Amino acid sequence: MTRNIRHMYIRMLVLILPFVLLQAGAIQAQSLIAYYPTSNSMNLTGEVDAVTYASGNTLSMVRTIRKYTDADLFEIELSTPYSSSYNTVLREAKDDQKIQARPELKRHVQDIGRYDTVFLGYPNWWASIPMPIASFLEDHDLSGKTIIPFCTHGGGRFGQSVSAIGKLAPTSVIGEPLAVSYGGGASLDRDIRRWLEDNGVSLP
């Protein structure tokens, strides 16, 4: 076997071995919950206690998804946050959406390559994704990964948000999305369990 052929086989082995091991159960696939909350003052990254006591509509979904998946958490934060005033932040968000702004992120996911599934959470703002979600999708290479969107809304369900995600991540697989009205009510836990099962997630 010539050196070039031997090197070719080695490269092929490096590429396919992780997938073979994953299918065999020798390594554990990892999931990430990346979310843009409705309030920059609410932070779920860190200890489970922070998850337990967090509040807010989008964060209620994050907390429940984390309970069933044990996925890593990543809060999408801006270098220059939007206003903490609800009415003001909606105006700022609308202005950014009009110009398709890409607000700068405060930080990025380290080693995004180790995740095969990204649960992507956000509020429905003006019938689409908040522009920080667009920044996140453009700043991270999610090629070949499964993106599973979930959003909160006040009556508009997904709006155009899922199609916007698909356009920004054309080489990713878009899973079955979930839209929850406001905080989801008493059925939130049950709805999220069913949604996770629909997306092929093994539940404890």
Write the layout of secondary structure elements.
Layout: H1 3-24, E1 30-35, H2 48-53, H3 57-69, E2 72-75, H4 86-98, E3 115-123, H5 131-139, E4 146-153, H6 161-168, E5 173-174, E6 178-181, H7 188-198
Parallel strand pairs: 1-2, 1-3, 3-4, 4-5, 4-6
Helix pairs in contact: 3-7
Characterize the structure shown.
It contains 7 helices and 6 strands, in the order H-E-H-H-E-H-E-H-E-H-E-E-H. The chain is of the alpha/beta class. Strands 1, 2, 3, 4, 5 and 6 form a 6-stranded parallel beta sheet that branches. Helix 3 (57-69) packs across helix 7 (188-198). Residues 10-28 and 40-55 have low confidence and may be disordered.
Main sheet? 6 strands, parallel
* Poorly predicted regions: 10-28, 40-55
Element pattern in H and E: HEHHEHEHEHEEH
Kindly report how far apart the N and C termini lie. 48 Å
Helix content: 40-55%
What can be said about this structure in brief?
With 204 residues, this protein is an alpha/beta fold. The protein is built from seven helices and six strands; from the N terminus they run αβααβαβαβαββα.
Q: What tags apply to this protein structure?
A:
204 residues; six-stranded parallel sheet; 40% helix; globular
